[in-house]
Amino acid sequence: MNPLQSVNGQNGAFPTGVSPQASPSPSADFSTFLVLLTAQLRNQDPLEPLDSTQFVAQLASFSAVEQQVKTNDNLAQIQHILAGADGASMAAWIGKEVRAQMDAYYDGDPVSVFIDGVDTAERVNLVVYDSQGNIVQSLEMPLGAGAADWNGEDADGNPLPEGYYTFRVESFINDEVVDSHQAQVYAQVSETRFENGAITLVFADGATLPASLVTALRRAQ
Length: 221
Hints:
The protein has 221 residues and is an alpha+beta fold.
């Protein structure tokens, strides 16, 4: 039995008093990448053109950076909304499921994982790690972004113990990994707290998450 069933498809703050080091924005990286790729294509030797495998890998990197820019834009909008919210309005989130890049606690019920491989990927795998960092499952997923339920089974179909698990999405082109990142998971909010000028979400297992890291909100499944 496949422990993952497809369903409907659809950072953070610095400690007080600590200033982040200046770094290029994803949009700046995106523009720089585009300029470099264009210059490379314009100046390549026609007798020794760029290897097709390398070119496809570079296009995959281009797609990954583009997706990061779009994600950051969406997060900026969410953070803008949260900045104007107070503890009372955030209470409406209690009982709903939020999506964020975090570990998930498996308690016997399926874990909803968001699969978002790069657009140009030929194959996308979901890799599951236990709390010790051991791979307990690796599954090939349908292409395209969407949510799927992981049923807590290992590669042989045996049930895994309750505990925390980490999920990674790996995108492949020509059997080479061109992108790997921690997957976002859905978790139900049991409490909201307003602490030190920021809103913190609390889950049933006691784990907490800054509300600013949330990328989506939905009714509990």
